[in-house]
Amino acid sequence: MSSLYLREDLAEVEVGARLTLTGAEAKHASTVNRTRPGESVLIGNGRGLVASGEVLVATNSELTIDVEAVERVPRSEPAITLVQALAKGDRDELAVQAATELGVDAVVPWAASRSVSRWEGAKVAKGRDRWAAIVREASKQSIRAWTPEVGGLSSTKQVAAMTATHRLLVLEPGATDGLTSVRPDGRPLALVVGPEGGIAPHELDAFRSAGAEIVRLGDTVLRTSTAGPAALAVLNAALGRW
To answer: Distance between CA atoms of 160 and 198, rounded to whole angstroms?
Structure first.
């Protein structure tokens, strides 16, 4: 299987061109993946453009390929956003990583009232950068043409306001309606996953008032690290992605 490397500044490339990676990506290809001349790899820009070809040069400072094919992959429609509550330990990060591998299109960190983990001051930028790095690496590992966007830290009010542009599906174990009963209607979807302590009643009220749909996955209660990815699997099947 070919490996995927990212060069976000790549705008266009044609068959027959020579395409070069430098810096950390080249070093990773050479020292970690042990890429060698003669192998086939993929280089993308994270925005749908993917070039493939044979490796000509593979050193710690340079990876160059002879472009043999170019693919321009359209965005998935409707888009799915994961609104993931901050969680203790690395459970929110595990959710973000798995969701990326499962095809989520965007991720929004949510400061829920019951979130033990808190991003404040310098931690806000640091936390978002950490999630962006996780998304980038998971996109490469799963060979995705589009790297999901990571939004800014959002409050409950800001998440509720997403109903203006998204069909908001809030995962809640006590809900009457199941996620499997949801029929996509063309609107972008946003899955809201609470922290380990669950979504607070006043937050559920705010989401309902904004027009969100409260749904459950099944009869069991999933951890915050698995609820989002499990819901994505359900939606992937419903949308015909799988």
So the answer is: 16
